[in-house]
Amino acid sequence: MVRSIRNHDLDSKVKGSIESLNHALESDEKLFISFVNPFSYQIISSDQNIINSVDVFYSDGILLTKLHNFFYKKKLERMSFDYSSIADNVLTYIQDKEMNLAIIGSKYEELEVFITTLEKRYPKLRVVYYRDGYFSESEYESIASKVEELDADYILLGLGSPKQEIFGSFLKNRLLTNVKIFTCGGFIYQTSVKDDYYYPLVKKFNLMWLQRFLLHDYVRKRLIKDYPKFILSYILGFIPRG
User: Fold this and answer.
1) Which residue of 2, 87, 122, 183 could cross-link 34, Cys pair, CB 3.0 to 4.6 Å?
2) pLDDT tens digits, residue range 22-56?
3) Could you tell me which residues come within 8 angstroms of residue 187 by beta carbon, excluding any fewer than 6 positions away?
4) Is position 148 annotated as part of the catalytic site?
5) What GO MF terms are annotated (predicted)?
6) What is the pTM of this model?
7) Residue tagged active-site, from 98, 110, 137, 165
8) Closest CA to 146 of 158, 135, 160
9) How many beta carbons lie within 10 A of that of residue 93, not counting itself?
10) CA 204: distance to chain centroid?
């Protein structure tokens, strides 16, 4: 039986404009920013602790964006942490403001390629700490201490949902400075494969989902199995109960 997964608290935190991103980057407050798509929505909507900890969600995917815009007056733009969307805005801002960046996620060999790629694209970017994303909860404190010791202003988490949201929530509560925490999903892996992962025509026509569908088996499984279920269970949340 399909049940509604719509979560009003989550929906109220979903933003979708460059103006909101710029406001977040320029804010003096500690912020935790994450992204939600049809797959992660099904996970995050059932975890109120994550919803409460994240300050802003961006709509990562054209399907969720269109569904949201159909049911809500306030319209969203699709915003993802990759080079088809806002990754360059964020990384350029960090470089230009000479702030410190910590990066956590992916496999170590992928992360090393990613760091090398970043150094070429952003030669003045100050990456003060990086490590792979394979660690347990028992290591949370030691990682937080290291990030704190190195005075990171921004933290990029590419751990997949819900681990990146859970760890990001821990960091937000643990760190005393006004750090900015961004999740980035598969950005580290994708960039380690190809600097600008999506082909120009794919970006032009918002077909990122199709490229990933063709390249990755797990994406095909999600689109075929999970996305139809998401559409139905999301829409059910807007149907008045009799």
Assistant:
1) 183
2) 999 999 999 999 999 988 999 999 999 999 999 99
3) 81, 82, 87, 156, 158
4) no
5) hexosyltransferase activity
6) 0.90
7) 110
8) 135
9) 17
10) 21
